[in-house]
User: Fold this.
Amino acid sequence: MHRLKSVLLLVFIFSFLFSRGEQSVEWFSQDSLLKNGVFKNYGFVAAPKTLGIVFNNKTDKTLTYFLKINNPHINRLFVLNTKNDTLFVTGDRYQFNTRPIYFWEFIFPIQVKPNTADSLKFILQKNGENLSFHALLIAEKDTIKFMTLTYIFIAPFCLYHYFFFLVLSF
Assistant:
């Protein structure tokens, strides 16, 4: 019985040590993210998670998108292109001015050249914590509508609290 425990422990140690290879990339198409986005809940994570987005521009114009990741508490977030060049480094552990667009969630501007296919990788680090987020791709024409609706919903909330502040201060 003692040998069996030793062998099982040895097998576990070897499998644990050699299973730490490169993290797999979970790929999404731009169409799936444009429609309703994707929600991921990885639970408590011990290693960074990587997701990729494939863009296809079949038009003769440069298309601009905005990727919104609605978890403002991601510790570190790296955006890499197909050559593994770092485009953005931001996160909750960095100053707010490292965000490409000053917004309480992470919003990344993405331009896709005419008649090309391209991809980006997003490495999300939140080691030892719960990692969940909703990623949504917004076309440039819908950005103003999205931002306006966001602020329309927040404005009454702010006015409500301002009203109670005034009432309670007298």
The longest strand covers residues 116-125.
